[in-house]
Amino acid sequence: MAATAFLIAPTTPPDYFRIISPTLSLPTDPQISTPVGLLACQRDPLLRAIETSVVTAYVSRPPPPQPTAGKKAKKAVLAPELPNEPLLHVLLHDTVIFPEGGGQPTDTGLIETTADGSAWEVVQAKRHGGHAVHYVKVPNGIDADTALLAFQPGAKVTVSLGEKGYERRYDHMSMHTSQHLLSALLETRLDLPTLSWSLTGYPNPCYVEVPRGMTQEEISSIQAEANRLVFEGRKVHVEVEELDSPQEQARPVQKLESGRSVGKGLPEDYTGGVKRVVVIDGVDRNP
């Protein structure tokens, strides 16, 4: 008799996202943008679509080309190359599209305007002053200023990842959590701190830079330990608080059961007012 396997769709645990500051809450006014750190895509990373509304939007025109001398400028690997044409910069009340930052590349997706059912491609999202701005492509044959009329403040929209966008997101978040796990094990088991790391855009591989080369035995040992923790199903959750809150200032430096110290610095490109700490149970605790 042939065996049958049923794959259960992944779900986000109800206690995955934890606001630990008593004064911090999600904005309920639809004309206020949810700050990075509290976005729907960060509260539930498996969420594919939400209904929301436009806060503001404007046309962004590409700068004139600059003459280059010598070597060609190196292209960024985190984000897709932007088209050399006007884009709409759209700020929503909330979003499932993650804006590039903290080492993780941008999501891509779609915004569907409820009034006419039109679908608009989001080619990139970035943080502007702690808020997620969607870079929306203007369809061929439509003037950018005319396209902007679809995104008047208060307009109802559905923002989604789509199949390709979700595949990209799932790869990014899996690799990002894997890097947290790998860096924690390298530091606690082999005293090899992570000097730098890069999570390039899907489907490119990512890398971690350490101070020296590793032997095959060390690689096999770390790989086996990482796999063991994954197969154990170590829980992952996120704690969110206000930056420089009294709780954060009073909290002493902790050590996990792995021996790794807590209290790593925030990413240099982070400008929001909310601090997120990703916790891998008993292994790592990292902003």
Automatic annotation (TrEMBL):
One of its GO terms (molecular function) is metal ion binding. Keywords: Metal-binding, Zinc. Residues 243-270 are annotated as: Disordered. This is Threonyl/alanyl tRNA synthetase SAD domain-containing protein. InterPro entries: Alanyl-tRNA_Editing_Enzymes, Thr/Ala-tRNA-synth_IIc_edit, Transl_B-barrel_sf. Gene3D superfamilies: 2.40.30.130, Threonyl-trna Synthetase, Chain A, domain 2.
